[in-house]
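Write out this protein's structure.
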Amino acid sequence: MSNKYRHLAQNTIIFAIGTFSSKVLVFLMMPIYTRALSTTEYGTVDLIQQISNLLVPVVTLGVTSALIRFGIDTSFRKNDVFTTGIICFTSGFTLLLCFSPLMNMISYTSDYTVMLYFFILMSALREMCSQFSRVKGYVKLYAFDGFLTTFMNCLLTIIFLTGFHWGINGYLSAIITTDALSTLFLFFSARLFRNIHFRGLNKKTFKIILRYALPMIPTTLLWWIVSVSDRYFITFMIGPDANGLYAAAFKIPTIVVLVSTIFMDAWQVSAVSEIKDRKALARFFSNVFRGYQSIIFLGGGLLIPFSKICTIILVSGDYYESWNYIPFLMLATIYNCMVQFMGTVYMIERKSVTSLITSIIAAVSNLIGNFILIPLCGISGAAYSTCFSYFLVFVIRAIHTKKFIRINYSVLKFAVNALLTLVQAIIMITEVPGWIIYEVFLTLLILLLNIKILIQSVSKIMGKFGRKKAKI
């Protein structure tokens, strides 16, 4: 029992080193990005990155997520898993090359099609190598690669944007070069080449992985619609400069995403590792989710009142207006984190089709919301729509996943957390008289509501570490 929490804590700390350094780059470099690029250029760069995020799972045929699920599972050989990934990626990228004429037809990004292809290529390769390095147990190498990647990206961004003044091409070139160096580093340092064996590939394993992975393609596309479609609606309904403001606003809530991503990297490994003991797994899920939701709500509750301050610190004056969209984007991020946690149940149970169905619901509700709310509320309408979509899917997944793993937690406590953060967001964007006092009061309530479970979780983990140290 103790090993579960100890390993989860250890992996979280190690992954934090690798993930935090790369994610924190977004905030450290924001002043450089927003000064070197106009709102229109930044909006174009954001669209290119989101197109890449859309196409990477297509290029890999959805197998990236399968690398963790099947790579850790001792029922499958790691050589078969990684070789399947390489075959899928090669096939997918070759197919993408055949559609280059269509890629040239995408407005706003048609001048950067070649850069987009290289961006997708290196992003996909780095993600695959990074995931499989974790599977092989090279967690410290994974962390070091995150640190090294951050350093190189910062250095190249400064050189290309402020030194050579390459604009959009400089921004993209820095990321492409960094991903290429990271891929080579992981491929040889983790000796991933030893896990490529085409002749000895187990065809049954190949089919099982492909059957799991293929539904992940439309699932990922649908989640892309939820998180990014509003940017296209904004671009075409209002303009690319408006999208630049919205994209800048989205960077602030990624502080919560940062914490969640660090934890989810470790959580997926721990959850799959404990799959054989079903009763213990349910208790594990319940204990972890109670602490996880408290951290996420507390993080969001602390950041919403600082929307203006964060904007002033992290972006240039031209982007100041973007603070108005942060509160509801923060709410959307909170529910997105919850959705991803519940998605771990589907991963363990190999219910990729079920995950697809809930993703369809999210995408449809988001598209309808964007279509209705953006003309009525402007940029804010996109934030409202995204928030509602994530909340809706969380409720559906929270109910449905009980059929597989019964996660026990206080629904009342969750509802109170949700209500308090919603009131925070409304007060922040309306700036009612005395709003600062109200925000402080609500933040303290959220802290009091969640502090007990956080102390208990830390005490449990520290207790495990303490007993381990005593044995030594």
